[in-house]
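Task: sequence design from structure.
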């Protein structure tokens, strides 16, 4: 997937595949998105001459318009996504280039699925713990129980987090049985990302559907963490059928590149998740560094 060629800067007949402006693309997308509910402001975005210094104003305006109603929020999101699909380029494996919307018409290509179950037995009841270093004193501690609830409400009072976030943290602390995620499925796009929830979900015994690039070192780390250190389950895309391979024979066949093989990854997630979740709750999170 690639940003569109910048025809606004150079006439189409002279544009090259290397002339791709992230700023022009962002301006175009936000203009189309906002125009779905406010055409005048959408035109203002398109005519913005100082995008790099003023884009935050337009992003905030988009958020404010979307917050006015569910209808607005969905219209803005759909219009923005439609523009991305219609303007971004997709470089196919055979070398030719099509628009992303055309590439995503491929609904058949997919991966095989590998699944590994953790061997560590769950012991005792889990509780939520949050590592915390006080800004004022520099003191480091691990917050849990009532101390975590008290701190969460202080954060809400200070404006650090929203009130409903503090309420949610308190609810989890007071209901430790919620920490057993064996009946929950989580799709992690960018499973090895440092900002992602892989380790937390692994520790809580979740069903993890992991997507990450096809590098053996990544899959060695993810699969072995689940297998040796948890009672979670990890499912992942493979280039060949899973027949019980282990070690490098397994790791080198794992992974899916969301930028290079976008339709294939989409199809695999679409078809695999229902088989794993079997009608139970599913959460999808994107944590890839693109």
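Answer:
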């Amino acid at each position: 997937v690639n940003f569109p060629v910048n025809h606004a800067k150079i006439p189409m007949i002279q544009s090259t595949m290397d002339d791709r402006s992230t700023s022009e693309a962002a301006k175009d997308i936000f203009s189309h998105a906002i125009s779905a509910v406010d055409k005048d402001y959408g035109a203002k975005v398109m005519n913005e001459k100082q995008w790099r210094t003023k884009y935050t104003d337009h992003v905030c305006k988009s958020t404010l318009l979307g917050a006015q109603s569910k209808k607005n929020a969905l219209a803005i999101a759909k219009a923005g996504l439609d523009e991305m699909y219609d303007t971004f380029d997709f470089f196919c494996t055979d070398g030719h280039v099509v628009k992303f919307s055309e590439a995503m018409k491929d609904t058949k290509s997919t991966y095989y699925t590998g699944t590994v179950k953790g061997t560590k037995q769950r012991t005792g009841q889990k509780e939520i713990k949050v590592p915390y270093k006080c800004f004022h004193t520099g003191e480091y501690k691990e917050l849990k129980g009532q101390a975590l609830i008290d701190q969460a409400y202080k954060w809400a009072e200070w404006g650090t987090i929203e009130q409903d976030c503090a309420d949610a943290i308190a609810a989890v602390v007071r209901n430790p049985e919620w920490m057993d995620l064996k009946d929950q499925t989580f799709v992690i796009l960018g499973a090895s990302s440092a900002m992602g929830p892989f380790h937390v979900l692994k520790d809580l015994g979740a069903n993890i559907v992991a997507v990450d690039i096809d590098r053996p070192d990544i899959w060695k780390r993810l699969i072995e963490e689940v297998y040796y250190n948890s009672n979670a389950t990890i499912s992942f895309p493979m280039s060949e059928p899973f027949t019980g391979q282990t070690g490098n024979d397994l790791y080198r066949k794992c992974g899916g590149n969301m930028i290079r093989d976008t339709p294939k990854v989409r199809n695999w997630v679409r078809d695999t998740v229902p088989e794993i979740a079997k009608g139970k709750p599913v959460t999808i999170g994107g944590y890839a560094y693109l």
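Residues 70-87 form the longest helix (18 residues).
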